[in-house]
Write a structure and sequence with these properties.
single chain, alpha+beta, FAD/NAD(P)-binding domain, seven-stranded antiparallel sheet, five-stranded parallel sheet, 30% helix, 23% strand, binds dihydroflavine-adenine dinucleotide
Length: 384
């Protein structure tokens, strides 16, 4: 069969791209290796799909070229996607920090995309694991199907248990496109060495500020039996590099000098009890013990100042991350230097496109990655 475009991958980006191109009159074939479309959409946001973020500005995306995402994100915004959601009568709510979720189920988002694909006459073929693409005489051929345009929308290798692979990179390399080394993003960090004692706090969480270099996030952190997780840590993990440190402020917003001042107010007070006013009991006990401070009156002001500094900048040296198995996204990917930021088309291979997570653009936690999938999908869909 001959088509105007073949899209590889019926995930968020591929379905959006197909719907837009189909509704523009293009004959579109989508090939999907799984037995149903949009599997990651279905499990996202705890089954409610955090489908966008009202704060989806380009500075909330990581890429070797931080300017690349600007054009697509400006032309298809969170409000545009929200308008689509509302047009389809899907009830939604804002949770926190601009994160928008379905009231009902992530299935509604997949159904919405499928309805728009149907409206555009898109042909979707599931259980089609693409391994080879031939390219000759200006056409891309996959088995008996061919088209003058091909879109790589096969995502990244995060959560291989769900069938995710690095196929996008393999294919891009075969076409001579550079790939920025992929690594796990939005992923729990593991602790070893001296930090290993914190694993005993498994299950304890607290609102903290997590820092890595100049970047910081104020959200919840969670201790796990392997290390650190929770939104603040997942966010900072995208900025962390092996060998680097992550600092946690356990008492965000506390005034400088609060601990010596607490001693003057009540020398018989215990650090553990003071911490307990802000932190869960087990965490307060561990931190006080690690600071080697009990009754404040028995500690020098210098020791209290040192403990205060430590509590607001507790250095962890993660010995790794939980890897692609647990990573919500993949950092790196097809180099943006190879692509047009307007259309997502490869500069060096005519009518080859790459969109979504396959590309070296990765958002923060909280709906940013779907917004990139929608925006890049629309950019390519309008160019096909
Ligand atoms: P996506 O992975 O969605 O789709 C790629 C498709 O290509 C898949 O259907 C795959 O089967 C198919 N494919 C792969 N290889 C193929 C081949 N060789 N041949 C044919 N088909 C092939 N983001 C967010 O913004 N809000 C959220 O709530 C969440 N929640 C979330 C939870 C969990 C557990 C994970 C793992 C991830 C999230 N994310 C998220 C991230 C989000 O799911 C992700 O960024 C998008 O799904 C990326 O969309 P893509 O279409 O690029 O890839």
């Amino acid at each position: 069969m001959q088509y105007d475009a073949i899209i590889l991958g019926a995930g968020a980006a591929g379905l959006m791209c197909a719907a837009v191109a189909g509704q523009r009159g293009r004959r579109v074939l989508v090939l999907e290796r799984a037995s149903e479309p949009g599997k990651k959409i279905l499990i996202s946001g705890g089954g409610r799909c955090n489908f966008t973020n009202l704060g989806a500005a380009p500075d909330r995306y990581l890429s070797a070229n931080p300017h690349f995402a600007k054009s697509a994100l400006a032309r298809y915004t969170a409000h545009d996607f929200l308008a689509l959601v509302e047009k389809h009568g899907i009830a939604w709510h804002e949770k926190t920090l601009g994160q928008l979720f379905c009231d009902g189920s992530a299935r509604q988002i997949v159904a919405m995309l499928m309805a728009d694909c149907a409206r555009g006459g898109v042909e979707l073929r599931c259980d089609s694991n693409v391994a080879e693409v031939e390219h000759a005489d200006g056409r891309f051929r996959i088995g008996d199907d061919s088209a003058p345009a091909l879109v790589i929308a096969t995502g990244g290798p995060s959560v291989p248990k769900m069938g995710a692979t690095g196929f996008a990179y393999e294919l891009a390399r075969r076409f001579g496109l550079k790939v920025v080394e992929p690594r796990p993003g939005l992923v729990p960090l593991t602790l070893g060495g001296e930090d290993v004692l914190f694993r005993e706090l498994s299950g304890v969480s607290a609102e903290v500020v997590a820092h890595c270099g100049k970047t910081s996030f104020r959200e919840a952190a969670l201790f796990t039996h392997r290390g650190l997780s929770g939104p603040a840590v997942l966010q900072i993990s995208s900025y962390w590099r092996p060998g680097g440190e992550v600092a946690i402020d356990f008492l965000p917003g506390s005034d400088a000098g609060w601990l010596p001042a607490a001693k003057r107010a009540d020398p018989r007070a215990h650090l553990r009890a003071l911490l307990r006013a802000h932190l869960p009991e087990r965490l307060a006990a561990t931190l006080a013990e690690r600071c080697s401070i009990g009754e404040l009156g028995r500690a020098s002001d210098k020791a209290l100042a040192a403990a205060e500094a430590r509590l607001s900048h507790w250095r962890f040296h993660p010995n790794g991350s939980e890897g692609f198995a647990k990573a919500e996204v993949t950092l790196g990917g097809i180099s943006t230097a190879e692509l047009s930021s307007q259309t997502m088309a490869a500069k060096r291979v005519r009518d080859l496109y790459a969109i979504g997570e396959a590309v070296d653009v990765t958002g923060w936690l909280g709906g940013y990655n779907f917004q990139w999938a929608w925006a890049s999908g629309v950019a390519a869909g309008e160019a096909l």
